[in-house]
Amino acid sequence: MNMLLKSVALAALTATATTVGAYAQEVTLRFQHFVSPASGSPMYFMQPWADKIEKESGGRIKIEMYPLMQLGGKAPDQYDLIRDGAIDGGWVIPGYQPGRFPEVEAMELPFMTAKSGELASIAAWEFTQKHLMDDFKDVKVLAAHMHGEGLVHKKGPALETVEDLKGLKLRAPTRTSTLLLSKLGATPVGMPVPAFPEALAKGVLDGGVITFEMAPSLKLDELTDSHTDVAGDRSFYNLYFIWAMNQAKYDSLPDDLKAVIDANSGLMASEWSGAAYDRGDEDGLVEIGASDNTIAVLSEEETAKIRALGDEVTAEWIADMTAKGFDGQKLVDDANAAMEAALASHPWIDTRGAAITVSGK
Predict the structure, then answer these.
(1) Residues forming beta bridges with residue 151, ordered by sequence position
(2) Which terminus has fewer CB within 10 Å in the chain: N or C?
(3) pLDDT (tens digit per residue) in 139-196
(4) Looking at the DSSP assignment, which residues form a beta bridge with residue 152?
(5) 41, 98 in Cβ contact below 8 A?
């Protein structure tokens, strides 16, 4: 009996020690992204997110943030680097791999999203939950988000008409933006954001479509002369992102640390990351506005012409997706419904409207 009691006591002590060890576990996670740490998303979402997790875990989770692909690879490699465990997590643009995640493109269609990154990201999370979790089953999706307004930054004068786009060589981030720019008579050049400044500096491009948020870190006030948006409250193009983690690494965490990650994931993190883009847009707009560059907005009439061509892109995309075995119309309808629901539940006024209609310094 004494031997039995000793064995039970030893087992209990061992179990207690194991449990204490597990809950005292300290974990360092390496997250990577492909832009300057001084741009909006890293400053206003990624690093604060990492700091929040470290605080809420009592210091037991440390997240190291590596900008500009410092751990290796190129921006289009991010999904596979996370999936394969080369990095523990990071920022992914699925559209950098055209054809691999085709359903994502529904959120990136012309004039699909509001110019608010925060509201567009609420819609993106809803759409992701409904349609994309199987696409991303190889990773742990922590957030899905969009940016705000996307516009044309170019050398030379601001755009005044649709015809001004004809013949311009413009950087395009995704297949849907390429389709729209082609419709507009431009020559789209598919290119991840890190390559954009060098292409501008070398004269390979006349400009490109991107946000105000990226303008400071890319030196667009120096490399371009004008920045033209469309009229209205919808972005003429947008980009879908995920903030993701290696699934096996997440699974290896004790339950209480998983709970910290979970509490900082999902809709909350998606909305936060979109809002960070909006704040970055404000910073970029201030910097561009302090330069001699021209900031302009196309007229309602010219914007309507672009919308009509955007509708053609959407119709052709639906037909293409249907031919591939997807329900293209439902994807578009659900993306629209998610955006409308976000707008209805979170009223938004574009307070930047007055500022971005001013041309010049």
Answers:
(1) 210
(2) N
(3) 999 999 999 999 999 999 999 999 999 999 999 999 999 999 999 999 999 999 999 9
(4) 209, 228
(5) no
Quick one: angle between helices 47-56 and 267-289, nearest 10? 140
Buried b (16+ CB within 10 A) or exposed e, 320-355: ebeeeebebeebbebbbebbeebbeeeeeeeebeee
Question: What tokens appear for 253 in the block?
Answer: 């965490």
pTM for the model stands at: 0.89
The DSSP symbol for 108 reads: G
SS3 90: strand
Both tokens assigned to 102: 């085709």
Q: Is the CB of residue 241 less than 8 Å from the CB of residue 276? A: no
Per-residue pLDDT at 47 exceeds 70: yes
Q: What share of the chain is helix, strand, coil (3-state, %, to 5)?
A: 50, 15, 30
Strands (E), the chain: 27-32, 61-66, 89-92, 139-146, 151-154, 169-172, 187-190, 207-210, 226-229, 240-246, 294-297
Please name the residues in contact with 86: beta carbons below 8 A apart, sequence gap of 6 or more: 71, 72, 73, 80
Burial of 80 by CB count in 10 Å (0-12 exposed, 13-18 middle, 19+ buried)? middle
Sheet with 169-172, side-by-side order of all strands = 187-190, 169-172, 207-210, 151-154, 226-229, 294-297
Bridge partners (DSSP) of residue 208 are 153, 171
Question: In whole angstroms, how large is the CA radius of gyration of the chain?
Answer: 23
For residues 210 and 214, give the distance between their C-alpha atoms in angstroms, rounded to a whole number: 7
Predicted confidence (pLDDT) per residue in 284-324, tens digit: 999 999 999 999 999 999 999 999 999 999 999 999 999 99
DSSP 8-state class, residue 129: I
How many Å from the N-terminal Cα to the C-terminal Cα in the chain? 90
Question: In the prediction, which pLDDT does 346 show?
Answer: 82
Q: Which residues pair with 297 in a beta bridge?
A: 229
Cα–Cα distance, 234 to 14 (Å, whole number): 61
Q: Return the number of other C-beta atoms located less than 10 Å from residue 128's C-beta.
A: 24
